[in-house]
Amino acid sequence: MADAALFEFLHTEMVAELWAHDSDPSPGGQKMSLSVLEGMGFRVGQALGERLPREMLAFREELDVLKFLCKDLWVAVFQKQMDSLRTNHQGTYVLQDNSFPLLVRMASGQQYLEEAPKFLAFTCGLLRGALSTLGIKSLVTASVAALPACKFQVVIQKS
């Protein structure tokens, strides 16, 4: 439990630090901060992927890789499994977490809904980095309709 709290505090401080020193409150400045957070998450995701046992990396199908992310990787990072995984079987996957740990504290009011994207950028990068290490190039976006639930859309980019 201490690891989860430590990660949550570290993540909150990263977001706060990037927004505190953002001298450009325009959409362009906010995009830069989101890009920095996503880049940090990407590198962490790559590092997590590199530490996986080699037998776990022998996936045959994209769907198996996404199932692995929803179960094993999500548990390693957030101490819970993803709530659902859906696909159109054409390279697009939607991962849903109905109680995303980094948004739970914000769920007390709808006024925080517009602040949610900056708390998801790191995790989008984390997923993209882990997929990259597993040999899958992807685009990962996140959306929040009601706190603390969120959806991550993963679009596999064919090479």
Description:
InterPro entries: NO_sig/Golgi_transp_ligand-bd, TRAPP_component, TRAPPC6/Trs33. May play a role in vesicular transport during the biogenesis of melanosomes. This protein is of the alpha+beta class and 159 residues long. The chain has one domain (4-156): 2-Layer Sandwich (Muramoyl-pentapeptide Carboxypeptidase, domain 2). The protein has helices spanning 2-20, 27-50, 62-78, 121-133, and strands at residues 84-87, 92-97, 138-143, 150-156. A four-stranded antiparallel sheet has the order 1-2-4-3, with helices on one face. It is globular, with a radius of gyration of 15 Å. The model has no long low-confidence stretch (mean pLDDT 85).
How would you summarize the topology of this molecule?
Layout: H1 2-20, H2 27-50, H3 62-78, E1 84-87, E2 92-97, H4 121-133, E3 138-143, E4 150-156
Antiparallel strand pairs: 1-2, 2-4, 3-4
Describe, in short, the structure shown:
The chain has 159 residues and is of the alpha+beta class. The chain has one domain: Muramoyl-pentapeptide Carboxypeptidase, domain 2, CATH 3.30.1380. The protein contains four helices and four strands.
